[in-house]
Amino acid sequence: MSRTLVAATRRVLGSRRRGDRAAASPPAGAGDAALVADLVEAIGSDRVRADTASRYLASRDASIYREGNAGPVCYPGSTSDVVACVQVAARHGRAVSPRGAGTGLAGGAAPLGQPVVLAMTRMDKLLGVDLDNGVAWVQPGMVNLDLSRALAPHGVHYAPDPSSQAACTIGGNVANNSGGPHCLAYGVTSAHVVAVEVVLSDGSVVTLGDLTAEPAGYDLRGAFVGSEGMCGIATAVAVRLTRNPPAVRTMLLCFDDVSDAAATVSAIIAAGIVPAAIEMMDQRCVTAVEDFAQAGYPKDAAAVLLVEVDGPAGGVAIASEKVAGIARRNQAISVRTAADEDERARLWKGRKSAFGAVANVMPDYYLHDTVVPRTRLVEVLERIYEIVDRYDLIVLNVFHAGDGNLHPILAYDSRVPGTDERVHAAGREIIEMSLDMGGALTGEHGIGVEKREHMNRMFSAVDLDQQSRLRASFDPHCRMNPGKVLPSAHSCSDIGALRAADAAGVWG
Ligand SMILES: Cc1cc2nc3c(=O)[nH]c(=O)nc-3n(C[C@H](O)[C@H](O)[C@H](O)COP(=O)(O)OP(=O)(O)OC[C@H]3O[C@@H](n4cnc5c(N)ncnc54)[C@H](O)[C@@H]3O)c2cc1C
Q: Closest ligand 1 atom, CA of 229?
C-alpha cells in the first residue's frame, strides 16, 4: 500500500462517529441484554440494534434459507468498531456473522444459531485511488456499481460485475469470490483483489496481500477471497483498476434451436476469440425478460446469445465480424449489433433484470448455480428440462455460457402444498447431474448453507479436513460465521460454537 493510501485508509477507518452513550439502549433479545449493553458501550447506541424487526431483517439473505436468527445487529463505521464488536462477542462466547447487502443466494449471510451480526453497509467509502499502481482502496460496504461510478472520471472501472451489482457490496463479492457477465475475459473477484485488511476472530487486524507484483510468502489473500465470512471480516479492500476499453461492440444473436446457440459458444472460443461476455437465455427466460424490461429481445427465438467484444477499435471490428460469421454458420436466425450506447444499455438491462422478471411468472424462485464443461451445455440443458418436467415445475435458463456457469431458475408458488419439496428435490438432482457431467458445485454464488452437504460429493475427506484446518488457522475457535461451507463431519468446532450459543440460552 502506498504511504498516502495508508494514511488515507487510517484517516477514514479511524474516524468513528460514536453514538450518544446516554441514549436509551435498544430493547434486548431474550438472553442478550448484557451483550447488547456491552456492544452499545463499545460502539455507541446508534450502531447497535436488537429490536425484533432489525434482527428479523438480518436473519435472511436472498436465498430460501432461514435456519437461525440474528442476535444483536451492529452497524460498524470503522475497523476499530469491528474490532470492538468482535472482542465483545468473544467475551460473551458468541459467534459473529458478517453481512453485506444480503443478496447472497446460498445462505452465506443467513445466520445459524444466534450470532452477533455485523452489517457492513455503513462502511461504504472509496478510501483512495492510486492510478500509478492501478489500485483503489475501498471499504467493504461500498456497493459494486457505486465503485465503478466513482471511478468513471479516471477512465477506469472495477471489472467483476455481478448481475446484482446495483445492490451487492465489495465485501460480499470478496467473501463469495463473485463473478459476473464480464468475468469471462477479465476473471472473477480473486483476480481483482490485491490486498485485504481483515479483522480476525480475536480482534487482531492483518493486511493480507500487498501491492507488489510478486508478493512474498503464502498467498493468504487468495485463501481469504471466497472464504464466505468464515476467516475474518474484511474492513478494507485494495481492488485492481481496469482501464475502460477504447471500443465495445454488443451483439444479440438469435437462434431457433438451443443447440445451435450452444454450438456457437463453443465455436467462438475454439476460434481463439475471448469475448468480454457471452450470456445465454432460453425462450422462457427471453419472454419473461422482454415482458418485464422491453429490452428488444425476440420472443420467438428458442435461445439468444448476448456477446460483447471489447478492446482497440480495429480488433473489436475484426472479432465481431468473426463472431457474426460463426453465428451465421451455426444457423443464427438474426445477428444484431447495438447501434449506440442506449441500445447496448437496453440489451444489458434485459440480461441483468432476468431474475427480477421471474416475478411476472411465479411469486417465488430458486436460482441454482453450477458449472458444467462448456462442451456439454446442450446435453445438460436437455437433462435440466427433463428433471424439471418430471417434478412438474417451470424453469427459465439464463447463464454465463462462455464459462459453462449455469443458472437454472425454478419458478414456483410456495403457497401450493408440496411445491417446496418438489423444488428442493429437483434442485438436488440438478446439482448431482452437473457433478456427474464433470462440473462443479458452484460457479459464483458460494456454498453457504445451500451446498454444504454436497461438499462430500466433490471433495475427499482429506481435502475437507485440510480446508477445515486452513479455516481454523484464521479462526481457531470457529466463531466467524460458523456452520457454513464445511459439511457437518468436518466442522466439529463450528457445531461447538453453535452449541455454546444454545447453552447460553440464546439459540434461535
Ligand atoms: C438478482 C441477483 C443476481 C445475482 N447475480 C450474481 C452474479 O451475476 N454473480 C455472482 O457472483 N453473484 C450473483 N448474485 C449473488 C450475490 O449478489 C453475490 O454473492 C454478492 O457478492 C453478495 O454480496 P452481498 O453484499 O449481498 O453479500 P451478503 O449476501 O450479505 O453476504 C455474502 C457472504 O459474504 C460474507 N460477507 C459479507 N461482507 C463481508 C465482509 N466484509 N467480510 C467478510 N465476509 C463478508 C457473508 O458472511 C456471506 O457469507 C446475485 C444475487 C441476486 C439476488
A: 44
Residue 334, strand partner residues: 254
Give the total residue count for the chain: 508
Q: What pLDDT, on a 0 to 100 scale, did the predictor assign at position 187? A: 94
* DSSP β-bridge partners for residue 195: 238
The Cα–Cα gap between 394 and 460 comes to 34
Question: How much of the chain, in percent, has pLDDT values that exceed 90?
Answer: 80
Query: Range of 305's domain?
Result: 247-355
Whether residue 254 contacts residue 298, with contact meaning beta carbons closer than 8 Å, is answered with yes
pLDDT score recorded for residue 492:
52
> What is the pLDDT at residue 224?
98
Residue 178 near residue 188 (C-beta atoms within 8 A): yes
Q: Is 444 in the pocket of ligand 1 (CB under 6 A)?
A: yes
8 A C-beta contact, residue 48 and residue 72 = yes
Residue 443 lies in a domain: no
On whether residue 62 sits in a domain, the answer given is yes
Distance from Cα 159 to the centre of ligand 1, integer Å: 16
Q: What is this structure's pTM?
A: 0.90
State mean pLDDT over 5-10.
33
Residues forming beta bridges with residue 161, ordered by sequence position: none
The finding on whether 175 has its CB within 6 A of some atom of ligand 1 is yes
3 state DSSP class of 499: helix
Instruction: Write out pLDDT tens, residues 80-132.
Output: 999 999 999 999 999 999 999 999 999 999 999 999 999 999 999 999 999 99
Rg for the chain, CA atoms, rounded: 23
In a domain, 170, yes or no: yes
